[in-house]
Design goal:
heterodimer; A: about 325 residues; alpha/beta; Alpha-Beta Plaits; five-stranded antiparallel beta sheet; 15 strands; about 30% helix; elongated; B: about 270 residues; two-stranded antiparallel ribbon; about 70% helix; globular
């Protein structure tokens, strides 16, 4: 089906030059996001990089200073009442009325959705609670919930109706490792059923395991975006050589066009390759490097090629202070 | 659906412990008055709030006496708490953003919140009158009521008049509720909105008492707060009720518009 706007129909979220200024401070500086339908899109960046403000603009909570947002092919916030029932959202942590039970809170949010049928409300709330493992705590007041339970309840709230898009802001915040694994499994199962999942995090490790696409925010700007593989390939691979003949090895590597890096151990030589080094492709092959080294009389005791880790990539993109999981 | 959201709002408002506590406090006013009068054996001296000296002859007057006592402070206080909490309370819990992405719709949510506050005004006035009538009937003789015009109406008619008075008082509080709703859209701190609303009611009553601001009196939302006695005339004089309803409608229009103007464009950052 071709929607008005043509190519927009295959994007779940599309922003164009989206900008938000608070007074003199620019929280979001002209980001162009394209989240394909069916993807699990990781929205990554340090705390304070503008992720939550971007999400608030996408959901119509905050109006952009300039730029536009299309959600599921529809213009926001003009078509908000048509679009948002198809979107489940967890925004900046879960929030509930503490004096109501978990189930009562969900019933309340559900009754605010004009398209949610009241007759099936009880059953849908129960099913959503069971899906996040909170069935036993349904009638407990939220003020007695732990942070992890509130996070699960927030996820249950996004699952009250069938959704085409889930926007999850830091969904594993406050969860223990077991809970984090469960949330990942939940996101995977939702993605498998065709739901587009847009998940923000400041923790790289979480994103890397479940995402197909990634966007990286830094200081309000989108500094990189693409599939996970695309992001991995950008950046130089490193050659790590273990040898007693370090000086000779360095000469050979420089002769082959590699850039020397600082080695952490005395009998190691580390160098980076601008072109891709791997088993295939047109780049410099690892075996060719080893052959050149041996030919020059370098005693090769260990040799490895490392693709840059995503973590290196993100630190490079976002600079100091990036809150990477240790 | 609108009715779904409204029902949910009313259910939560009236099952909330705080709301129940406010209503219990309001019910305590006539009970305190009745018990105090019952314990003091001497008959009324004619001093004290209106209707108070008639209580010993007819228990039905406890409700109206309690209204007179509650109107300057207690009633506006409870209305200020509920109306000031409408939007700011949701913002402080963070639930405002989840209601809006549900999507409740900003205009729809504001209307539902106002209707909730209005329902509380009705409940508050009814609580005072009903608790007063019950305790009055329990502690004092009950009989036909002599109204302000000197004629007498029977008990059934009198009870209907008291219900009408509760309605009159509830309507009187609608303007203040709209003011509270507007303040509530300005802040994420409910206590701030509550305090501002209650201060407004005090300021309005002070201005209404100063002869120097007489030109302003008919425009003050508290101007008709004590005029409900017109219901106790024979025949009932509805003139002040009409003026009051019109005045309150004006406040609802002005502060409702301000609340809409603020809330529909507000960045929800809480």
């Amino acid at each position: 089906m071709l929607l008005p706007g043509g190519e927009s129909s295959d994007l779940a979220i599309e922003t164009h030059d989206l900008t938000k200024r608070f007074g003199r401070q620019t929280a979001v500086a002209g980001i162009d996001l394209a989240v394909p339908r069916g993807s699990v899109f990781g929205f990554l960046g340090p705390n304070g990089s503008g992720k939550t403000t971007s999400i608030r603009m996408m959901l119509g909570l905050v109006s952009p200073s300039s730029g536009s947002v299309r959600l599921l092919g529809e213009e926001m916030p003009r078509r908000l009442s048509e679009v948002l029932p198809r979107v489940g959202a967890l925004v900046e942590g879960p929030a509930f009325s503490p004096f109501l039970s978990g189930a009562a809170n969900l019933r309340r949010f559900d009754s605010a959705d004009p398209l949610a049928p009241p007759r099936t409300r009880g059953a849908r709330v129960e099913a959503a609670l069971d899906r996040v493992g909170l069935g036993h705590a349904a009638s407990k007041k939220v003020q007695a919930y732990s942070l992890g339970m509130k996070q699960r309840l927030g996820l249950a709230n996004t699952l009250l109706m069938p959704r085409e898009l889930l926007v999850l802001d830091e969904p594993t915040n406050g969860l223990d490792p077991q809970g984090t694994r469960e949330v990942r499994a939940l996101i995977r199962s939702l993605a498998d059923s065709g739901t587009t999942v847009f998940v923000s995090s400041h923790l790289l490790a979480e994103i890397e395991q479940i995402c197909t696409h990634v966007g990286v925010m830094s200081a309000g700007a989108l500094v990189a975006t693409g599939t996970l593989d695309e992001l991995r390939q950008v950046g130089a691979a490193r050659v790590i050589l273990q040898t007693p003949d370090a000086a000779a090895a360095r000469r050979v590597l420089v002769g082959l066009g590699l850039a020397l890096l600082e080695a952490t151990e005395p009998d190691h030589v580390v160098a980076s390759v601008a072109e891709g080094v791997g088993g295939d492709g047109d780049g410099l092959r690892p075996e060719a490097i080893v052959a050149a080294l041996v030919e020059a009389g370098v005693r090769v005791r260990g040799f490895s090629v490392e693709q840059p880790s995503l973590e290196d990539r993100f630190v490079a993109l976002t600079g100091e202070g990036f809150d990477v999981v240790q | 659906m609108f009715s779904s959201l409204l029902l949910s709002e009313l259910r939560i408002l009236f099952s909330r412990r705080r709301t129940v506590a406010l209503l219990v406090a309001l019910a305590a006013i006539p009970i305190l008055i009745a018990v105090a009068i019952r314990l003091a054996s001497s008959p009324g001296t004619g001093r004290g709030p209106a209707f108070l000296d008639q209580v010993t002859q007819n228990g039905l007057f406890v409700g109206v006496s309690a209204l007179v006592v509650a109107i300057p402070l207690f009633l506006p206080l409870t209305v200020g708490v509920v109306a000031g909490d409408t939007i700011a309370g949701e913002a402080s819990h963070g639930t405002l953003r989840y209601l809006l992405v549900a999507p409740a719709g900003r205009a729809r949510l504001l209307v539902v919140k106002y209707l909730g506050a209005a329902a509380f005004c009705i409940a508050a006035a009814l609580t005072v009158v009903i608790a007063g009538t019950l305790i009055g009937a329990a502690l004092f003789p009950v009989g036909p009521v002599t109204v302000l015009s000197g004629t007498t109406i029977d008990v059934g008619e009198a009870l209907l008049r008291f219900l009408a008075i509760a309605g009159y008082v509830a309507v009187s509080l609608l303007g203040l509720s709209a003011i509270g709703l507007f303040f509530s859209t300005l802040t994420n701190v409910p206590v701030g909105a509550m305090a501002a609303t209650i201060s407004f009611s005090v300021a309005s009553q002070i201005l209404d008492a100063l002869p120097q601001t007489e030109w302003l009196h008919p425009w003050l939302f508290s101007h008709y707060w004590f005029s409900f006695a017109d219901i106790l005339r024979d025949p009932v004089s509805w003139a002040s009720f009409g003026d009051n309803a019109l005045l309150q409608a004006g406040y609802i229009a002005v502060f409702g518009a301000l609340a809409f103007g603020r809330f529909l464009t507000k960045d929800i950052l809480a």
